[in-house]
Amino acid sequence: MFAIQTDIIRKRRIMIVKGTKGKPKLLMGGFEYYRNNSRGSKTYWLCARNRYLRCAARIITCSTTGELVIKNQQHNHEAQPQEKVDSKDEKKPEQDTSSSK
What we know:
Elements: H1 2-12, E1 15-18, E2 24-28, E3 31-39, E4 42-47, H2 50-53, E5 58-62, E6 68-72, H3 82-89
Antiparallel strand pairs: 1-2, 2-3, 3-4, 4-5, 5-6
């Protein structure tokens, strides 16, 4: 069962990144989700456009099992191209300034 969940995650291209304010943001299928709540091993995510457009799309992730539950995937707005979402939130890797001898 875990392998199936992993395949689903790979196909949907899910990433968790830091947002502009340093808080975690889940990216999936061109949509952004912010962490709404956490209880135990479950994290509840709401569409980032929830506040502005009343989008009701939700995702629940479980850190212990790797399970991904899509509660509502009906967005009332268009997705952003994934490249645009990625480039906005990705940080460049820090360069190693230490030298080894």
